[in-house]
User: Fold this.
Amino acid sequence: MNPRPELPDRRARVLVVDDERQNRTLLEAMLAPEGFEVVTAASGEEAIAVVTHQPPDLILLDLMMPGMDGYDVARRVKGNLATRNIPIIMITAHGDRDARMRGLGAGAEDFLGKPVDRAELTVRVKNLLRLKAFGDYYSQYSEALEQEVQQRTADLAERSRRLEEQAGALLRSEERTNYALGGSRMGVWELDAGTQRLTWSDTMATVFGLTPQQAPTDVAGFLALVHADDRQVVGGSVATAVRTGADFEMDFRVLLPDGSTRWLAGRARMMRDADGTPVRLLGVGADVSDRKLLESQLRQSQKMEAVGQLAGGVAHDFNNLLTVIMSYCDLVMNDLHPGDPAHDDLLQVVGAATSAASLTRQLLAFSRNQVLRPTTIDVNELVTGMEKMLGRLMQDSVELVPLLALDIHAVRADHGQLEQVLMNLVVNARDAMPKGGRLTIETSTAELDGSVMKGAPAEVGAYTRLAVSDTGTGMDDATKERLFEPFFTTKAAGKGTGLGLATVYGIVQQSGGFIRVETALGKGTTFSVYLPRFYAPGESAASAAPTIVSASALMRSSAALPRNVSA
Ligand code: ADP
Ligand code: MG
Assistant:
């Protein structure tokens, strides 16, 4: 809208109000030649009627009138919103100051003294009409402005409402994202290509065991959290990704504030703007420790399986050969004259063949090719029965301490083989204490609810635990990882066969149990054998104890492996 008012095109209408006819005629005669349309009223009442039905552009108003006088008319006109803009010129006696003051009070804009001067009249009327035109124009203009302001305010309110709606949707989507990320132990991070500032999602901090406030804000801070052995590679890969814009993808270890190590799978991609300029490196990290653990357990159990088959096959053939050797030794000895010097030599051969046969039996136990004769066993009785024999195996500096729980569950296993398990563990414990120490054989009951087996398939149910502890050398990680492998030994040639624990593993496995190893270098080691509780016919597992959940064969074999448990 153009803020420059134009005077109305039509002729301006002027209302002349006077009770005296000659005055009306005079004024009309003065105005008509100037191009005004003149309307007249002979009284105040008549004037109001004209104003109401045909509003004029200006009023010339006589003051003194019978009935409604000029002041009243002015007040009425100015008191009405629809007519208040109509300018009023009052006609007063010359120099009547009092009348002028009252007229102003009633709302008149201007005055003319009697007798009216024609030139003065036209100038004043024209001026006031121009002013009114301005007034009309600006009130229209401001009305339009007001409308526009209202429209825009409404638009703005609508826009902010929509923004709020979008923000709400964004917030909900962020909540969903965070929930998903947190649940899968994943986090998101961003590295600004310009400022090199690093930003972590809250879930990323959680993966690292940190609060969001403790999250690093640059690459150096992040690398400080990476495992020392992986730090250089990770740092190099991030630098390469930043420099070349190539994707980054690698698994690495991180150190948590509680001292534990977790595996992280990291992935990142350079984000670019429309011109292809790198803007930020966007990455995700996921805690894959559980997967790594299962992978290594699976690898280990596959290796054991393969070695077991190999060893079993060899042992089987070898056992057949030993049978042939011994049979022929028997035949030859029978043919010899008593006192023949070859007799003693042959006895040596038979002795060696017998040792070899016992070795192959161990191998066969490990490879599960041996025939089992499972019976119901009270582990306490088994330990007590072997105590004397085990005591003889010890040097004096080793103290043998049985710690047998009173009411343990019966288990089902091959008696001879279980004896062998205990024997192998005790011999190993003895060997770990060349300078002496304490060897404890402990039995107890274990109700496993799955939570103890962190990161491994849950072994739920009632178990009898047979544990052999020593206060010996303990083991480093490299030994701990391989100790169940057949032929793995750290002992001098001729001292160790590396078959002891492989046999233990095979037997426990076949009996449906599993083994845990806790060890600390220089402090000692505990081997715990868990054997499932045996329920006699009529005895219900559900009524007596939690049901044993049988996991799949794969899970079982990996669960039976030692876990990395620190002592
Ligand atoms: P061997 O006793 O013939 O060496 P095993 O299979 O019985 O074979 O044991 C394998 C290896 O495991 C041992 O050589 C030893 O390094 C380690 N080991 C087993 N038991 C213990 C123990 N109680 N303390 C320390 N190391 C042990
Ligand atoms: Mg051994």
Residues 118-183 form the longest helix (66 residues). The mean pLDDT is 85. Residues 424, 428-429, 432, 470, 472-473, 475, 479, 483, 488-491, 496-498, 500-502, 525 surround adenosine-5'-diphosphate (ligand 1) (CB under 6 Å). The CA atoms of residues 166 and 256 lie 38 Å apart.
